[in-house]
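User: For a benchmark we're assembling, each entry needs the component sequences followed by a predicted structure for the full assembly. Here are entry 17's components. Please fill in the structure.
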Amino acid sequence: MVIPMQILTTIGYTFAYAVTGLLIAPLLDGFRRVVKARIQRRLGPSILQTFYDIRKLIKLGALAVSDNSLVIGVPYMVFSLSILVTTLIPIPYLPGLNQYFGAISLVYTLMLITALTCLAGLMIPNPYSNAGSIRELLIVSSFELFTAFTIAELSTKLRTLNLYGLATSLLSPVRYLKPSTIILAISLYLLAYIEGGWTPFDIPEAETEVMGGPLLEYGGKLYALMYWSNLMKKYALVGLCITLTIMPPIVSAYSSRLPLVAVPALSYVTYIVFTIIMFSLFSAIEALNPRYRIDQIPRAFLALSVIPLTGLVLGWCGW
Amino acid sequence: MSYEIPHRWIVTFRYPLEPLPPPKELRGRPIIDPNLCIGCGACVRACPPNAITEEIDISKGIKVVKIFYGRCIFCGRCWEVCPEGAIRLSNEFELATPNKDDLIQYVVLPLHKCVNCGKPTEFTERQVVRVLTMIQELPIERREELRSKILLCRECKASFLSKPMELRGSEVYEKVKA
Amino acid sequence: MVNFWVRRSEGIEREELLRLIDQDIAGLVKEKRVATKNFVVYVVDRDKVVDVVKKLLEYEYTRLSVIAGNDERFFRRDFSLTYIIAFDKQDLYIGIRTYVPPHDLKVKSLAKEVRAAWWHERENRDLYGFEFEGLDDPRKLVLPEYWPENVHPWRKDYPYNKPVADWREGQVDYKPIKEDKIDADVVAFGPYHLVNDEPIHWRLYVKGEVIVDVEHRGFHNWRGIEKIAEGRLTYNQIPFIAERICGICGYTHACAYCQAVESIGRIDIPDRAKYIRTVMLEIERIESHLLWIGIACHILGFDTGFMHSWKIREHIMHLAEVLTGNRKTYGMNLVGGVRRDILGDRLRKAFDYLRFMRAEYRELYNMLISNTIIAKRTRDVGILPRDKAISYGVVGPVARAAGLRIDVRKDHPYAAYKELDFRVPVYSESDVLARTLVRLDEVFESFDIIEQALDRLPRGPILADVGEIPPNSEGVGYVEAPRGEDVHYVRTGLYNKVQRWRVRAPSYANVPSVKEMLIGYRIADAPIIYASVDPCLACTERCIVVKAVDNGRTYSWNQLVELSRKISRRMGL
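Assistant: Structure for entry 17:
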């Protein structure tokens, strides 16, 4: 039996995506720590610190307040779903699983992660973890509008919702400097920042208020999985923005001049470099902001959703 | 590297990996110089947390002054009250250790033996020498009288002092010569 | 009912006021003693004491500062209670004392009307066995739940080093008083919570995220430091243990204690010593405020502010190390003066440092006040109404943020504050933002004070000759700690030892009022509201770890995991 070449490459690329996601997420967190440390005028830890942390946590074994199978199972489920999310990032010329997934299903996968986390958080009889889960749900539901407008804008702009299709359709010459395109890019970055739970919006886990929220009662390996998943989610959202905004013009600029074998590798390297830069930029923004209070959030999100709505309207009008 | 007004962007140090000397004014670990200590016990009485203690072992004929840094609050009172300048405040502050015995400094001083009966007294030889040098300034009769008291143990003193003065002086001289 | 602050007293001289008071309480007083130049004690019958205290609190700018119990059976076969009231505009402390016979320790309670008495009464009940009639809070304050009912450790027949009988047998769990009466969810904020640097338990009754009622149980650290001092330390050893009451404002405790003893012994400390004390107190204030600013930023999720604030704090601690020989717990004080002089070289270094730090602090200040999220999170949060503030007798930045213009440095000048020029920032909003701004402004004032004091440093000795301290006399020492008024009541005893030493740290007055601040706000606000009084539980509880005892309740790792699972099973998971 002959397995078609396309399936083999898909599996290969998907595997590459997953390994990249697993390894780069803690590394990016190391960059985040160093950037924050530099802004706070201190030396900061080694760039590999997050790896050390995870190693230490895993050594402690699986710790949870309960031996309930759902409570223990959630970290594993969340972890595997997070790996799935990282494989959906559509880097141009690296078609993996993202060929078969649409933007909507990506959103639903992210929501599933949130829902599972909250489910475990609500099951555990700890007021802090309950409060954190409720906050998480509140944020997700009030952010719904923003996400919906952004995806609508994306789909009207590019006439597709397939993730890989989104990335490749951008490669053909588009006039990037239209107002609606710029607004779309801004909305995407806002989406990545807010959905990724960077500081003014890290309310569900707010250490000093609810002590980690839904993650509070996990320890050791289970916490390591949750923590790692969270990092991968952050990375995936940033990566998605990179592939949909910065990558297409750059890749399309050099892809026609290079031999076809070198293009995926170069595309991959470009992607990694820009992800690191963007992650560091996000970290810098994070370092300069205190946290919002939960009741200030829905109003702020409502105000923010005007941005993708404007883009949507402008896109319809053809600007 | 030492701590100065930092005019650089990054202000922290790789401290345990590189040394960071404290300013010279630091009141660090007090160290008793065993060559100078006379065992008078002034520091023992001044020490607020009882970190410095003294013990007299008559059977062995020694006095042990013991300073335990686990209790020390680094106030430097001992350094202030020491009449001999035997206590020095060092600049050491990294005293953490897995072994509690590392935090103890002992100073063992021989006790003065009574010139009459040969038994150890409650004070050290160095205390006696110190007092003997202190009384050099006094008029001779007073000096002799004190000297005869200083060199004896409590029991001998009690029995000895009942004897007439002249007798005492000559006897003590003989003992001292011997 | 108490009519707080209805009678004007501003502008009245001390002698005039004392005359007025004599008239007010003429029929009720049995004896009047002038203990020191600004501490007057009236002896009153025990059924009149509450009325007298209420009468005095009608004057403007008065606070019930301390209720100090004492076991005077050795002198006169009685217990005594001294209600010390501070008159802030006359530089006067008035003690209302009543003697209570040991067989019948009943006294009327004041706590319902004067909230400041709430904790003091419970503490005296725990430690001496007084019974306050009408005190509606049956819980213990300082002693743990398992402590036997009829053992009162502050009585003189209880030795300072006696452990209570095997406490494992009497293990009793804490019973909250309101839990059954309120229909609300319980959020336990502490004893272990990320923002609690020290253990305190706030039981928040919440509906949704809104707090509807609050219950406090603290003093997990209480060790009875005062008893150690009464039991075995001499006058000149106590400054060192007083300094170790608290790691942040320890020097204020050492100063307050020394001032109390100096006032008893009528010792005039040399001018140079006064100035050096002032410098060190202000260095400590800057250090403490910077610490607070850092922690507040951290609570709001603003770690950059936290790091920058602590960066400046590191410099000020280095300066303290250069001047005294230690970063904290300076060990500078003795009764009669200070131990280390500020010499020329160090003086120059100090000026360099101050100039540098002021510039850095200006940057931090601008960064913080221009941040909109900080303002959003702190404005109109944790409001303590003015009347509540008066009833609770709050002090320091909490009082000044509530519009009460009180500051011990101005009102009861000590050290060299009388000769120095500085401003006391006062805000009237009484929210977290106002408290933050008071502290932010005070740091600038402290820089000014240090520079002035170093500039004018007089020549001369630094330690006065201390003669005999008269036995059986009493006095108060007071210092404006970074958190407010720190009062030490000292009564001298025989053999060069104190007979009673009562430390009332500022947080002891401020922390009870957190209850009023929390109600009506959200769980998210609770940490910053609680932090806004700058709670220092080490001071409040006067703790010190003397000896760690293995109590047979040490859990292994696996046991601990198993225990937590057992508890969740019990809670229905």
